[in-house]
TrEMBL record:
Domain of life: Bacteria
The name this protein goes by in its record: Thoeris anti-defense 2-like domain-containing protein
Protein species of origin: Sellimonas intestinalis
InterPro entries the UniProt entry points to: Tad2-like_dom (IPR021361)
All copies of domain Thoeris anti-defense 2-like, residue ranges: 1-73
Length: 95
């Protein structure tokens, strides 16, 4: 599906999205995108063996990302705290 379709569906179903054709798998490491309501950024989660090992911000989609139709959804891994609320209040940048 296209990025706008994946984003709407990910938000509705509380999931993450990724591009099937460029998904990074090295030793079962997956990079997933978590859409947010912040104008600042979306979150990027590095997932290994079904667990979040790192959460980063400032994902910048490429032109290819924006027009690609290989976006898919995945369940959000269990994570004690997702920084979405902080991100929406800009606190993530002051920690």
């Amino acid at each position: 599906m296209y990025i706008h379709q994946a984003t709407k569906k990910a938000v509705k179903e509380n999931k993450m999205m990724y591009r099937k054709n460029v998904m990074q798998i090295h030793g079962k490491i997956i990079i997933g995108i978590l859409p947010t309501d912040s104008y600042v950024t979306c979150l990027i989660a590095k997932i290994k063996d079904g667990k979040v090992v790192d959460i980063m911000s400032h994902w910048n989609p490429t032109r290819d990302d924006l027009v690609a139709k290989d976006w898919e959804l995945m369940d959000r891994p269990l994570q004690k705290e997702w920084p979405e609320d902080k991100l929406n209040r800009f606190e993530i940048f002051n920690t």
